[in-house]
Amino acid sequence: MKRALISLCSTLTLFFFQVQPGLCWGSAVHAYIADHLGKKAPLLNLNEVYGAVAPDVFNYMFDNPALQQTLVMGTHYQSTLVWDTARFPTGKALAFGFVSHNELFGADHTAHLYLSGYPDGYVIVKAKLLVPAVQYVLGQNGIAITDPDVLLTVCHTFTEFGLDVLLKKVDPQIGRKITMAALLRSPEMPFLLAQAYGSSLGGTRQALKFIQPMEREFRKNMILYGQALSQDDATSVQLLAEQLAQMSAQYLALYQINVTAEQIVPLIEFGMGEAMKNCQADFLQAISEIVQYVNTELKDNQIRYY
Predict the structure, then answer these.
(1) What domain range is 21 assigned to?
(2) Which of 106, 156, 268, 279 is positioned for an S-S bond with 283, CB 3.0–4.6 A?
(3) How many whole angstroms separate alpha carbon 239 and alpha carbon 231?
């Protein structure tokens, strides 16, 4: 189980380093927001939760960066295509959550664009706040990151994962909800994606052959991700630190910064811990505002099925 969880998180982390729209909120935050919107009927609510994490379904296409970028931009900037495609209640629930994630007027808009008191975006502000401490600790361990963008990316990732762990203090069941949402999601999801984004993949029928296995793997990953967050905080942080170390070492090597995964595990645990400290005082207030913001924006954009 531990190996599987570490492998899952490694995949997630690599995306955060490669595709800018991924540098936003983590899956747990998106799930929490969706859980506080829309219908409260259990099955529909769980589909909203799964829909809210599903825009990241194409995040793992590392063998085709150009197509990955096209599809990720589509899911984050053209999310209403899924809404327009959905017809039945469970499909509308999936689409409702899907749109709540988007970059233009959804939850991701507040991560690095705007939130009251955080004109640059909550996650960006918190990541920048983390930079001096992380830079100092890295330097103390003989690791020099001179490129400010690289350093900010590292701190952003620490912040995002730290926030997902921190969220468990607000909703201890968030991991279980993500797992249940993935287990019980409507089978409509891959069809909605194929119809919405099939033009980039040779049409709906051809797209479905491509999307079904990807969505199936993503669903499995979300089940494991929820299970990871269902552990105690120390175990969650440890799992995330171990996988982040593995991916961070590979990422930093691209910039001729040579470190081993074992060398930086405690540094990442430190970074995540500091990120959680930086966010714990105002995180709940920020999340509450995001829920209100997304709820208003969804209504204003006629995204409503209840």
Answers:
(1) 2-299
(2) 279
(3) 10
